[in-house]
Design goal:
Length: 265
């Protein structure tokens, strides 16, 4: 009997000069948050945390999309009676792992960020976005809400900006992302921007970085502890709703959902 080939990895890992790079590497589905990608990214963060030679982490991507959000083809798959709740809790755990990582995590983005991908961005300690970057919290268009990712996203945005972009599900650029606090820097040269940050971090002591991050993430980790059950329940309930099913099917079929202006039926 021939051995079954191992699935291709969806997160590429590399370490050089004290910097570990975790690259979302699933361009066939726009780096969607599949079970495999989430698992590999969580494992990569744990490896960075445990490696004394690693001083910081760069979270980046291959292809023109940083992350398209949830893998809707897996939305109803899981090993429990409530797969939607299982996937919501899995995403909470991943976002919290980014925040809890004892090494600073820098987001390096030069592509599109949608829905759940916005949670990855908001969970990073610093983010540099290049000129090809666009951002959107698209959940409301699908009959969903940005439930799980609201914990880190709302911690970064002011109230008026949060209402503007969560309720309209509209797209905005890197300059607006910087203005509202979602990213650190909108840069013409994203690699130069990231290198400037990693060079500065490498001048700091491991203990200094770790303990400073404890100070910076204390309130956000408290928000995860207080809100994880609430947002997981909301996410699970919405993913199983008739309206969200219509929204996701319409998205996959590349047609407008029934509530869109001019939609048929």
């Amino acid at each position: 009997m021939s051995e079954q080939a191992a699935p291709e990895r969806r997160v590429a890992v590399g370490t050089e000069g004290g910097v570990m790079t975790l690259a979302l590497d699933s361009p066939h589905n726009r780096n969607a948050l599949s079970n495999q990608l989430v698992r590999e990214l969580t494992e990569g963060l744990a490896a960075a945390d445990a490696d004394e030679s690693v001083r910081c982490v760069v979270l980046t991507h291959t292809g023109g999309t940083f992350c398209a959000g949830a893998d809707l083809t897996e939305a109803t798959e899981g090993g429990t009676d409530d797969p939607a709740r299982e996937r919501a809790e899995q995403l909470v755990d991943l976002l919290e792992a980014i925040v809890r990582c004892g090494k600073p995590v820098i987001g390096r983005i030069d592509g599109h960020v949608r829905a759940g991908g916005m949670g990855l961005v908001a969970s990073c300690d610093m983010v540099v976005a290049g000129p090809s970057s666009t951002f959107a919290l698209t959940e409301a268009k699908l009959g969903l809400a940005a439930a799980v990712i609201s914990i880190p996203v709302l911690a970064r945005l002011d109230d008026r900006s949060a209402s503007r972009w969560l309720l309209t599900a509209a797209t905005f650029d890197a300059a607006e992302a910087q203005r509202i606090g979602l990213i650190t820097q909108a840069a013409e040269d994203v690699d130069a921007g990231v290198t400037a940050l990693t060079d500065e971090l490498l001048q700091c002591s491991p203990q200094g970085l770790r303990e400073t991050k404890v100070l910076l993430t204390h309130a956000l980790l408290e928000a995860f502890a207080a809100g994880r059950d609430r947002v997981a329940e909301q996410s699970s309930r919405l993913f199983q709703s008739e309206e969200a099913q219509e929204g996701m099917i319409a998205f996959l079929q590349r047609r407008p959902p029934r509530w869109a202006p001019g939609a048929q039926g």
